[in-house]
Design brief:
single chain; 246 residues; alpha/beta; 4-stranded parallel beta sheet; 3-stranded parallel beta sheet
């Protein structure tokens, strides 16, 4: 708590592969353990010589750092698995999401009052995405589902996701759209991480917001809550003005 305010980090992150993926792999279907965490992520150098802070998979350290920052509660998202939408082996994608969500439940069990998991959903398999949301919320205690704004085979407003949005509404949990840092809408335009990251999240959030708004999803599921994360908020009034004009 800072200045008598309860502080909630709505977009915290874990490093699910900090140990080389061993703990995560222990939750993965045996058929896929030889290729755990291979998501085909951004090949650009994101490290900057370690200047971005610690890289660990230890919930005790996570709580210590939250205390330093004055954060009371953190909703947790992945790092490596932000790129899971690129996996074209659907069985593997589903299995990896399940394994991560199980691993995340273990991580949050250290301080369940302060560490809140958001389940990663296999958006390449819409029906399985709905099933995994239900399992993660009702069996693992996660507080919502993370959807990638882009999957190689579907748009987030496609009718195949109706079961997912209906499930989220019924369970009263949000769907949080979170990109991986680069935008498929801007392919091969940037050579460095800082270039891709400057626009990637924002462009993907604007794209998802446009699709969700124009599709009528929020009218069909009026109690559905959605979040658009890590793209800042300056684009919101601009996009709202543009949508009104269009």
């Amino acid at each position: 708590m800072r200045n008598d305010y309860i502080v909630i980090d709505a977009d915290g992150h874990v490093n699910e592969d900090a140990d080389g993926g061993h703990a995560l792999g222990s939750h993965l279907d045996a058929r896929f353990r030889s290729r755990v965490i291979r998501t085909g992520g951004d090949p650009r150098d994101r490290g900057q010589g370690g200047k971005y802070g610690k890289r660990h998979g230890d919930p005790a350290i996570h709580i210590e750092d939250m205390d330093v920052e004055g954060i009371d509660v953190a909703a947790l998202y992945p790092t490596k698995l932000l790129a899971i939408c690129k996996i074209e082996d659907h069985e593997y994608a589903v299995a990896l999401c399940r394994a991560y969500n199980d691993w995340l439940a273990d991580f949050c069990s250290y301080r369940p009052d302060r560490l809140k998991g958001v389940a990663v959903l296999p958006m390449v398999e819409p029906r399985e995405a709905a099933r995994e949301l239900e399992r993660s919320v009702t069996e693992l205690g996660h507080i919502g589902g993370m959807a990638q704004p882009y999957a190689y085979n579907h748009k987030v407003a496609d009718a195949c996701y109706d079961d997912l949005y209906a499930c989220a509404q019924q369970l009263d949990v949000p769907i949080a759209f979170h990109a991986g840092g680069e935008s498929p809408s801007l392919p091969e335009r940037f050579d460095t991480f800082i270039e891709a990251h400057t626009l990637g999240h924002t462009v993907e959030q604007m794209t998802a917001a446009t699709l969700i708004t124009y599709s009528g999803i929020l009218e069909r599921y009026p109690r559905l809550r959605v979040a658009f994360l890590e793209g800042l908020v300056g684009w919101v009034p601009m996009l709202a003005e543009r949508m009104d004009e269009e």
